[in-house]
Every structure is written in structure tokens, then in C-alpha cells.
Write a structure and sequence with these properties.
Blueprint (H helix, E strand, L loop, with lengths): L1 H24 L26 H9 L24 E5 L8 H12 L3 E5 L14 E6 L13 H5 L5 E2 L12 E2 L7 E6 L11 H5 L40 E5 L4 E5 L5
Length: about 260
Amino acid sequence: MRQRLFIIITLVVVVVVLVALNAASYVKVEQAADSEGTPDRSTFNSGATGTRALYDFLHESGYPVARWRDASSALLSSNGVKPATLVIVGPPLVWVTQSDTEEILRWVESGGRLVIIDRDPDRGLLPKSGEWTVRSHSTQLPWSDLDPANFEQMTSGVTPVHVSQPTTFAVDVKDVMPSRFAGVISVDSTWKSNTNPKPNKKSEEHAPGGGESYSESSESPTPPPPVNGYDLKPGEFSITGSPAPVVYLADDRGALLVDYPHGK
């Protein structure tokens, strides 16, 4: 009887000691607050910098959204279901390699649509379109103690941006209130008109005293590059469309929403 009592007491003491050690070693890990300086744009993040609300809204609205967990090479595979649109929001937690960039762009060339929402997107994912280049950069960086959940701090000094063109991207959209830290998109063309005057040989031959005389050449300026490889005449249009980017939202700083073709 005494032996059993001793065993029971020993077990109770061991359990109490284990509970005490566990309580002493427990350290509460506090979840780091969202910071606009190092935002977490994950669709799992329901915080101020996350996109969980956007994901849930699209899902509840009936759109077939899903989180892409496969490698970029799966976009080009003949097996499985492929997305019609791939959305990349902010800098990915997993670094996008050169191979990933090439595979994503090949998928876009084959008919996929890539949507990038970022202040400073990877330039490898912004290829040229004909003679046009698209770049994005930040004009104002968030400070360390900024509260991303504070609407006043995020939009101070910003006015709503009105839609530039009535297109499918702006259906039922009156205006958009961007963040004061939103990136600005610039659209530039590398095409240059050949308008420099050239020496006129005929004038040079008849110059008095054998000197040189120059006059503007009658050669017309170099025409702009053909649209998607087609040399169009006035009044004609291309079925494939122009490679020039289209601006849908813009303010006095620059463009906020731009769309342009790549491939098909």
C-alpha cells in the first residue's frame, strides 16, 4: 500500500515539475505589426498591408481565384489547369529568378495576362513593347512609424484620380483614391525622328568660290515604326492593335494604371 502511494506521489511531483518547466520556458511570440516599409502583400495576411480582403472579395463575388503555389514552369506545362490571369502584388517573398521571368513572359506571349501591382516592380517583367518602354518608381517612401491602417496618414495630400478612358478596366469606376506612396509609371518611346538637315550636293557644286553651301535636304522625316510589324496606310488599322501602352489612370505626377500587349 505504501509502495503504491509512493509511486502516485512521485508521478504527481514529476507532472508538476514538467508543467512548471514548460511555463518557465514559454515565451509568447508577438506577431510583428504591419509596416508599409516592409509590407507583407500575401493573400493570407489580413492586416493593413495584406491582400486577404481583396482575395476574399473576389472569391465571394464569384471569381475563380486561387493561390498559385506551383513553379513558374508549370505555366507552360501541358498538364493541369492554367490560370488566365496571374497577379503579382508587391515584392514576392520568394525571389523571382531570371528563369522564372523568362517562363512567365513566355506564358504571356502565348496568351496569358500578367497583372503587376508594385511600387518598384522587377524590370525583367516589364519588357519593351515595340519602341515603347514602361517603368515604375517611387516618389515618396513611407517612414518607419507610419501606421498603414491609418487612412489619413496613407492618403494625406492626395486627391482622387479620375478614370482617363472609358474601357473595360474602368467599368463602374468613377475615381480611385491612391496611396501617397503609390508608384508612378512612366511611358517612354525610343523612336526618334530623322529631322537633321543634310548637305545638299547640288548646292555644294554651285557654291561661289568653291566653298561649301548647305541647305535642308528635301528628305522627309523618318516615319514612325510600323504597328506590330505592319506598315499601315492612313485610315487603316491593325487587327492586332498598337504596341503603344494605354494609360487608364493618371494624375499630375504620372500614370497609375497602364496596360500594354506582349506576344498575342
